[in-house]
Design a protein that fits this description.
336 residues, alpha/beta, Zinc Finger, Delta Prime, domain 3, 2 domains, 5-stranded parallel β-sheet, elongated
Length: 336
């Protein structure tokens, strides 16, 4: 996928395109940001750009050139079959081992086989074991000519400081709903399903693509109604926490649904009947579910969802995170 087809990361892509066009590419980059927002895709696009056999001029939105996406080099890179572009990913116990880094170092010392630049993508780079990280540092300190390293990570601070200092950081943002809709529609989704999934995905393409189009309507509505309905009874609330907290992925998905519902409840409280993005049917459902809950209470509910997501990011137990969130929701709604 060439640079021009990457959605929602104009700033990061612009930095790379300008550096490439001006002959100012760094020898090592670190792509940082939330998961599933296009970091690895952009790393592949960079590999295509530096090895493309027929670069194309910039389009109307950019004066910098881009990879063609169709030549032999571009298609082989996209398929993961180019001999000069390698991906290093965890193989054993979700970590990148020293043996993998030693193999990378041995190949990186060789001249490019058929491309212009050898490109190595490490994803996720923060999963390097300490011996592997130390071995990789030696390769970074004495890189072979014509070699480009791209480290992909959601935890920049987890990398060795000496590795961070030798990489140019490029930050990636959470995807907005519009780019997510575009991505989903490229995968054949109907526009209305893409819009619904984008609103529930929390800015992550992988999460949006994992949703089932046929269940976008009923399942989220039922979940929101069940959660809000459980707040009046402590036993029902604890049962709901047990269901929501069965596993991390399920709770993350539920939090996106509940957050979207709370946002719609806020809109329904102060926006006009013609508010964009909130249909009359959705408004009626939201108002029926939240009842006479005040705007201040709804905002506290939304804050509880945000805190639960932060807790999961810090590896909290899903069951405890779900229970704490529901208790905060109950306090906001019933004890305002």
């Amino acid at each position: 996928m060439p640079f021009r087809e990457i959605c929602g990361q104009e700033r990061a892509v612009g930095v790379l395109r300008r550096a490439w066009a001006g002959g100012r590419l760094a020898q090592a980059y670190c792509f940082t940001g939330p998961p599933s927002v296009g970091k690895r895709t952009t790393a592949v696009a960079l590999a295509q750009a530096v090895n493309c056999l027929s670069p194309v001029p910039g389009d109307a939105g950019s004066l910098t050139p881009d990879a063609c996406g169709t030549c032999r080099a571009c298609t082989r890179i996209a398929a993961g079959q180019h001999p000069d572009v390698g991906l290093v990913a965890p193989e054993e116990k979700t970590v990148i081992t020293i043996d993998q880094i030693r193999a990378l170092a041995a190949r990186a010392s060789l001249r490019a086989y058929e491309g212009s630049v050898k490109v190595w993508i490490l994803d996720p780079a923060h999963e390097m074991q300490e011996p592997a990280a130390n071995a990789f540092l030696k390769t970074l300190e004495e890189p072979a000519a014509g070699t480009l390293f791209v480290l992909v990570t959601t935890a920049f601070s987890a990398l060795l400081p000496t590795i961070r200092s030798r990489c140019q950081e490029v930050r990636f943002a959470v995807l907005g709903e519009a780019p997510l809709r575009t991505i989903l529609e490229r995968h054949g989704w109907r526009a209305e399903d893409a819009a619904a999934a984008a609103a529930m995905a929390g800015g992550r393409a992988e999460r949006a693509l994992a949703l089932e189009p046929d269940r976008l309507g009923a399942a989220p509505v039922r979940l929101a109604e069940e959660v809000w309905g459980s707040l009046g009874s402590l036993p029902a609330l604890l049962d709901q926490a047990e269901r929501l907290g069965k596993d991390r992925a399920a709770l993350e998905s539920a939090l996106e649904i509940l957050s979207a519902f709370a946002r719609d409840a806020v809109v329904a409280r102060f926006a006009s009947e013609e508010a964009p993005g909130l249909s009359a049917e959705r408004r009626a459902l939201v108002e029926r579910t939240v009842g006479d809950t005040t705007l201040a209470a709804i905002l506290r509910v939304h804050a509880a969802h945000r805190e639960a997501r932060q807790a999961l990011a810090w590896r909290a137990q899903p069951r405890l995170a779900a229970e704490r969130m529901l208790l905060k929701m109950r306090e906001a709604v019933w004890h305002e």
